[in-house]
Inverse folding.
């Protein structure tokens, strides 16, 4: 089992790809313009973490990803992020950011620590109530977007885990996968999953559902759109979940996290088929 080595997150590549795709895909330009503002903030936060870290241990206690937050650098950036969102986000999200700006730092600490320990809300099927949504998706977005660079920084300092088996969750932070990524390895492509929170990748079997473990190829159809030749929908008929797959053997310039944000028509199509993403991306596209 392979776990890709943790490397410095390439925010300039994310930002540059967002510019290219916003010019190429006009229907995604508004989303990608907003994402560029978020990514620019995330880059500043990520780059500033080392000098603001203080004497806090560089690696989580006992290697546990969700040990306590190093709050000082996070709180400083959270206020800046709320101001950014208040001034540039759609009205409901801007209003939520405005409300949080009026709270005390102790309230921010409680909110951020709660999200850090709980993680991203999972979509679960409830027979009588339909899809169970996060209690407050706007707050969850604000915490997730702000803490993602912190999570990426933490994982870059941790040793790669020893994977003894196929993992459906991130071996570092136990979050669900956001994407399937096909990378050129030797003479063929190898499938990796990318974490929805800390962005790390780990090797995963080609014919296997990353949610329920279904391994019957007949129940794991893959769909491709002519509009997105390098992006596939990997579905499972058993659990009705799907992953989007970014095929880097077809487009080596793709940046999986950003290309995923732009594939809005694929989300609309999957909804029509009654399929649900294993884990949504940051902007829910």
């Amino acid at each position: 089992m392979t776990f890709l080595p943790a490397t410095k997150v390439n925010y300039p590549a994310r930002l540059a790809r967002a510019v290219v795709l916003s010019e190429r895909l006009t229907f995604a330009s508004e989303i990608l313009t907003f994402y560029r503002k978020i990514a620019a903030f995330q880059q500043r936060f990520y780059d500033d973490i080392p000098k603001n870290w203080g004497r806090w241990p560089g690696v989580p206690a006992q290697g546990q990803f969700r040990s306590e937050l190093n709050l000082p650098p996070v709180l400083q950036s959270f206020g800046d992020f709320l101001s950014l969102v208040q001034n540039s986000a759609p009205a409901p999200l801007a209003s939520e950011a405005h409300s949080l700006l009026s709270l005390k730092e102790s309230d921010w600490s409680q909110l951020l620590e709660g999200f850090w320990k709980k993680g991203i809300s999972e979509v679960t099927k409830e027979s009588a109530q339909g899809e169970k949504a996060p209690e407050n998706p706007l707050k969850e977005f604000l915490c997730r977007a702000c803490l993602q660079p912190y999570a990426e920084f933490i994982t870059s300092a941790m040793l790669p885990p020893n994977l003894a088996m196929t993992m459906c969750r991130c071996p570092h932070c136990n979050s669900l996968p956001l994407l399937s990524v096909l990378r050129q390895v030797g003479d063929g492509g190898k499938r990796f999953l990318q974490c929805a929170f800390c962005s790390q990748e780990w090797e995963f079997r080609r014919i296997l559902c990353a949610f329920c473990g279904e391994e019957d190829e007949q129940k794991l159809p893959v769909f491709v759109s002519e509009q997105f030749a390098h992006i596939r929908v990997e579905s499972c008929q058993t659990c009705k979940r799907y992953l989007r797959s970014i095929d880097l053997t077809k487009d080596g310039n793709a940046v999986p996290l950003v290309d995923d944000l732009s594939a809005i028509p694929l989300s609309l199509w999957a909804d029509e088929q009654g399929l649900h993403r294993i884990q949504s991306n940051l902007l829910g596209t």
